Amino acid sequence: EKGGYDYFMLKEIAEQPKAVADTLLGRIDPAGSLTLDEVRISPSELREIDKVVIVACGTAFHAGLIAKYAIEHWTRIPCEVELASEFRYRDPILDSRSLVIAISQSGETMDTLMALRHAREQGSKVLAICNTNGSTIPRESDAVLYTHAGPEVAVASTKAFLTQLVACYLVALYLGQVRGTKWGDEIQAVIKDLSRISEEVERVLETMEPVRALARTLAEKDTVLFLGRHVGYPVALEGALKLKELAYMHAEGFAAGELKHGPIALIEEDVPVVVVVPSPRGRSVLHDKIVSNIQEIRARGARTIVIAEEGDEAVVPYADHLIRIPATPTLLQPLVATVPLQVFACELATARGNEVDQPRNLAKSVTVE
Ligand code: M6R
């Protein structure tokens, strides 16, 4: 049932191109517009929405953090993202014009379920992004967008995460379309780019051997740090979470702009720092700033592991290890940038002799608060 792989996690990592393609399937019509029939909230209700609130836990929360960039950019609707476990305890401001998006692979996470119940009690509409048909979270929501990742068995979420991102982009594009947005041309371009992303993920998977080899050399380390900016920041958080849960290492993700506000004090000789570099095209200011960050940490002894777009030559002099990813539009980069981090964590866990599919102390779905 592991399809020839040693672990479910490896199988699920390998299934990502198909999972991404399946989640897009039938949702973009040949004319290039979006039809999301599972969204049973009417377009007129969606036009009334004045705020989006995303609630989720763990990896699904990281998908939500990335979704915020897409939703605010394409729709101009303010979007908050909150850990489901914190949400209802702070008396959040919600009403019938708030759209709450609950993201959950299992559809059974108690924290997320309680957050969505709270939102519905306040009269808000709830849209679930979920991978498990007929599970509790979609059953209790006003609308559902299923991710078509197929069953995810490994405790560490991989293919569900990529499909959650795709679903979030679809929701953002749909909201933009329904409400009319000045990004019409960009949306058409993004739809084209999304339809190519499955092949890009495949290409990333074909180049993972050096990442595995690198991971094996780090098996004795205590700490790995992750840096990112813009949508690369949640990717850094996700890379750190994967490493914590699988390799039981101290791993932390930071927004690169925060370095000088504290985290740079952690940099010492030979500490591995993974840096997710934004595209040099598009928001190139961010690219240049992060290249300076890489120089700064390297000057203080960090071993830099740089994830950068093909053709980005500016990073080459400062990268002790360079991991190439295909060029994508900025907002879509997490779909390709996360994959090496999954492989990295899986290989480190293996090198440390850990149980990859069943990390200690963790359950696949957390059905208690
Ligand atoms: O089933 P859910 O998506 O609601 O689960 C949320 C988290 O428990 C889950 O993503 C967890 O963080 C994973 N083990 C991360 O790999």
TrEMBL record:
It catalyses: D-fructose 6-phosphate + L-glutamine = D-glucosamine 6-phosphate + L-glutamate. The active site is at K364 (for fru-6p isomerization activity). GO terms for molecular function: carbohydrate derivative binding; glutamine-fructose-6-phosphate transaminase (isomerizing) activity. Its EC number is 2.6.1.16. GO terms for biological process: carbohydrate metabolic process; fructose 6-phosphate metabolic process; protein N-linked glycosylation; UDP-N-acetylglucosamine metabolic process. It comes from the Bacteria. Homodimer. This is Glutamine--fructose-6-phosphate aminotransferase [isomerizing]. It comes from Streptomyces monashensis. The lineage of its organism: Bacteria, Bacillati, Actinomycetota, Actinomycetes, Kitasatosporales. The gene is glmS.
